[in-house]
């Protein structure tokens, strides 16, 4: 990341924060370097050893590929696939100059196969809503895949970083943590990230933009314009607030559960703003909105606006979470099946996603 090092100093490159490395003028970022903390977490879960053959999905700057290459030497090899040819070229030059054994390939990793034989490990540096079959087929038996998974459609924050192990004709999770990544783009979508509808309340003064609240969710597109306007008006009112006790950070306890919630009569939305980030439900007529937010102070609270229906729906989901043992991500398991839909069992959620089915469950050892 030479441009960032020159502009902000070398220390900024190694700071524990994500760095945007490409953002078209006036557009959303299309490439970034992940926060080193989550990079380290993912590499630990990948259990890399000298001699491993590794497939990386998304070369970006080449930073993560360089770390992977260091961990699999001597005798290892890394193939990194990048959709954007100019990024691939730049990463390849940087890796070659650093002496790292990485083959950078231009291609669409969601649909193509790369590197010949099967890989011991696969790691993705952008989020997906399902595991492409091509990844499964390129992984050797008992091999590991570590990837960010979008468990719900509303917004970019409802993601988990999952370590999967190949087991028979499917995958089973061996570790789940919270994380947020850019979407993995595909040649089929023109390389553009599909953005869900948004309702925002913000101000711009003296050229400075400040966002107070931001609702994101595909369900917003199914609401009438008048209903969305009512939602905007609700966001300008003072909410009813109450604390929600959780056994740990909301991002790893209640919020992932809500991301899988039965939406009932409401519209599942994600929220970001001054009060924090989280999940919630809006009624389809826009007259009620209720949110569970994880604040910067790490406390979890419920904010309710307008009529009571939305808060009643959200309370039902919180009650269900408590009844099922207040599961945290440490209790979660996710199985991936490719050939047929698995049977539905009590306490499980079966998500049909593209080329596969994901079965989400939590252990009986969840704390009561």
Would you mind describing this structure in some detail?
This protein has 368 residues and is of the alpha+beta class. The chain folds into two domains: 2-187, Vaccinia Virus protein VP39 (Rossmann fold, 3-Layer(aba) Sandwich); 198-323, no CATH class. The protein has nine helices and 19 strands. The chain has helices at residues 2-8, 10-14, 36-46, 63-72, 85-98, 133-138, 225-235, 254-259, 309-323, and strands at 19-22, 31-33, 53-57, 77-82, 102-106, 119-124, 139-150, 159-167, 170-178, 198-205, 208-216, 240-243, 266-273, 276-283, 288-294, 300-306, 332-337, 349-353, 356-362. The strands form three sheets. A ten-stranded mixed beta sheet has the order 5-4-3-6-7-8-9-17-19-18. Helix 6 links the parallel strand 6 and strand 7. It starts with a helix and ends in a 6-residue tail after the last strand.
**Helix/strand structural class:** alpha+beta
Would you list the SSEs in sequence order as H and E? HHEEHEHEHEEHEEEEEHEHEEEEHEEE
- Helix content class: 10-25%
Main-sheet strand order equals 5-4-3-6-7-8-9-17-19-18
Count of discrete domains: 2
* Terminal residue distance: 47 Å
CATH top level of the largest domain is Alpha Beta
Could you say what the CATH topology of the largest domain is called? Rossmann fold
**CATH architectural grouping of the largest domain:** 3-Layer(aba) Sandwich
Estimate what percentage of residues fall within beta strands. Answer: 25-35%
What is the mean pLDDT? 85
> Poorly predicted ranges (pLDDT <50, ≥5 residues)?
none
